[in-house]
Amino acid sequence: VQLQASGGGLVQAGGSLRLSCEASERAFGRYTMAWFRQAPGKEREFVAAVGWTGTNTNYADSVKGRFTISRENAKNTVYLEMNSLKPEDTAVYHCAADRTGPNIVARYRRADYWGKGTQVTVSS
Q1: What integer pLDDT is reported at residue 29 of this predicted model?
Q2: What whole-number percentage of the chain has pLDDT above 90?
Q3: Phi, psi angle pair for 118, to nearest 5°
Q4: Which stretches does DSSP call E strand in 17-64?
Q5: Span 20-42, mean pLDDT?
Q6: Mean pLDDT of the chain
Q7: Which residues contact residue 23 at a Cβ distance below 8 angstroms, ignoring those fewer than 6 apart?
Q8: How confident is the model over 42-78, as pLDDT tens digits?
């Protein structure tokens, strides 16, 4: 599975961005899709995950109420809508695909497939 993320950029605090990640795999609908992020000098952090049907989701506490993950299986694409952005959200955001569920991905911070990241920078 090849994953291509896009949509990153520079935004002021309080602003919004929408990330997209398109998958090459025709069996996209069978994978849990997730977003992780990594800031300079920090460990990779789980952000959000969505199950195969799009109804089962899991979010990191730090983004709950601000970020929304969704997917369009017909387009092999997962999205991350980010609102009320904060400077601490600055990181490289990676999308990932996994054959387990959102709770497993969140708990173990694991995925079977990883895409190249897209930079998100939030200025204060």
Answers
A1: 87
A2: 94
A3: -130, 135
A4: 17-23, 32-38, 45-50, 57-59
A5: 93
A6: 95
A7: 1, 2, 3, 31, 33, 76, 77, 78, 97
A8: 999 999 999 999 999 999 999 999 999 999 999 999 9
What's the token pair of residue 85? Answer: 């952005």
How far apart (Å, rounded) are the C-alpha atoms in residues 93 and 6?
Answer: 9
CA angle 4, 8, 11 (to 5 degrees): 175
d(CA 47, CA 14): 18
Question: CB neighbours of 17 closer than 8 A, spacing ≥ 6?
Answer: 7, 8, 9, 11, 82, 85, 120
Displacement of CA 54 from its chain's centroid (Å): 14
Give the C-alpha separation, 77 to 88, whole Å.
Answer: 26
CB 113 within 8 A of CB 100: no
**Nearest Cα to Cα of residue 113 among 76, 67, 63:** 76
Buried b (16+ CB within 10 A) or exposed e, 64-89: eeebbbebebeebbbbbebeebeeeb
Q: How many CB atoms lie within 10 A of CB 46?
A: 23
Half-sphere exposure of 51 (CA within 13 A, CB side): 10
